[in-house]
Amino acid sequence: MFFQLNDEQRALQDAVRSYLRDRFGPDKVRALYEDPTSDGVPADLWRALGEQGWLAVLVPEEHDGIGLGLLDAAVLARAFGAGTVPGPWTSTVVLGEALRLAGSPEQQKSLLPGIAAGEVKGAVALLKPGSSTPSGAPAQASGGTLSGTLAMVEYAEVADSLLVAAQDGLYLVDPKGSGVTITAHETLDRTSRLSTVGLDGAAGDRLERSSPEVVQELLDRAAVLVANELVGLARFSLNDTVEYDKTRVQFGKPVGSFQAIKHHLADLHMMTVMAEHAGLYAAHAADVDAEDKQVAASIAKAKASDVAFEVTGAMIQYHGGIGYTWEHHAHFYFKRANRLQHTYGDASQHRERIARLVIDTAQSSDATGVAPGGTAGVQGSGVAAGAA
Predict the structure, then answer these.
(1) Of 11, 97, 148, 256, which sits with the fewest C-beta atoms within 10 Å of its C-beta?
(2) CA 154 to CA 146: how far, in whole Å?
């Protein structure tokens, strides 16, 4: 299947980029980065996310949302990655997706309109550190209460609702309720804020349609959003590096003309292009419920994690001495890439999942004589991604 962004999605992309360039550029990111008292959520920016409908992108229309698809949300994620935009946009969108997929009508009515308007900030804890499947739920549920330690939760201190995965499904928890303790941490990447959340008999409101399949779909959707954020981050970093190396002169020539550098940058460009295509296709596959959507999600996250790490490292090196300084913005991108490459499964975990979905399935079909459901889908991913 061949596809590309439509005119509305391109217009959305241009609008977000223009807004961030004009109203929330690198200087404002740096101000937040260096402010030890900031909660990591610029009030003006968060208000704009609600007013512009960027938090409502996946919320159904009957709950005051726009009701668009994951591909539209991926366009937003790429723009936010390119700008190292702070704030709990991803976690709030994931909270909304959990409600849409598994919430009761009452739960949806209670929170989705507030998410769409920017009145509700979300935090999510779906996995233990180092895990990438629903079996890695970080909390234990018993009699409607939750216990456990939730590590590395983004924006828990400012959240209005906390989405937690337990062994029997998804729960909504009041972050300010009884039995909840939140401990903020100093982090390497200060474009975000991370905390440890302790649950000790905290009341949990279970999403009634929770199941392992729903949790896996939510994890895949979250991974696709993060993959596209990483791709946006990588593309900006690469373009910024290329422009700098066109003007930085050594031995009387731009350093970008040196064979070793320009060949490496060309390789990074190709890697970034393929990751861009994989990220967009994975979002499209989720929207159309394609047969290969799970494989596509893992391909996108694995590629994006690898590419962002490689490109941001090269960004520092190919900016020379200035790239290693605190005053240059390269470290914003490098640190964010290092954090996000582990979020919702790292590259190795997703490659192992691809092997399970494709190779193990194919071997099983060889034994039974039944064609595997995923093989054609993997081939389709390559065709569609290349045409994105």
Answers:
(1) 11
(2) 19
- E-strand ranges in the chain read 122-125, 140-142, 145-154, 161-166, 169-173, 180-185, 194-203, 205-206, 249-250, 253-254
Q: Tell which residue, 5, 90, 78, 84, has the closest CA to residue 49.
A: 90
The CA distance from 254 to 348, in Å, is 37
Contact 262, 256 (CB under 8 A): yes
List, for residues 214-236, the tens digit of each pLDDT value: 999 999 999 999 999 999 999 99
Helix (H, G, I), strand (E, B) or coil at 271: helix
DSSP string, 58-84: TS-GGGTS----HHHHHHHHHHHHHTT
Strand 140-142 to 145-154 pairing: antiparallel
Task: Give the pLDDT band (50/70/90) at residue 254.
Answer: confident
Query: Angle between the 70-82 and 89-102 helix axes, to the nearest 10 degrees?
Result: 170
Q: Which residue carries 């994006």 as its tokens?
A: 304
Give the three-state DSSP class for 258.
coil
Rounded average pLDDT over 302-315: 97
User: What's the CA gap between 160 and 178, in Å, rounded?
Assistant: 14
Q: What structural domains and CATH numbers belong to the chain?
A: 213-386 (1.20.140.10)
pLDDT of residue 367: 58
pLDDT at position 385: 40
Asked if the model's pLDDT at residue 258 lies above 90, the reply is no
- Determine how many CB atoms are found less than 10 A away from the CB of residue 44: 9
Specify the residue for token string 């900016």.
319
Tokens 């199941």, residue?
211
DSSP code of 139? Answer: B
Predicted confidence (pLDDT) per residue in 360-369, tens digit: 776 666 555 5
CA distance 350 to 324: 31
Each residue's pLDDT tens digit, 147-173: 999 999 999 999 999 999 999 999 999
Burial of 180 (0-12, 13-18, 19+ CB in 10 A): buried
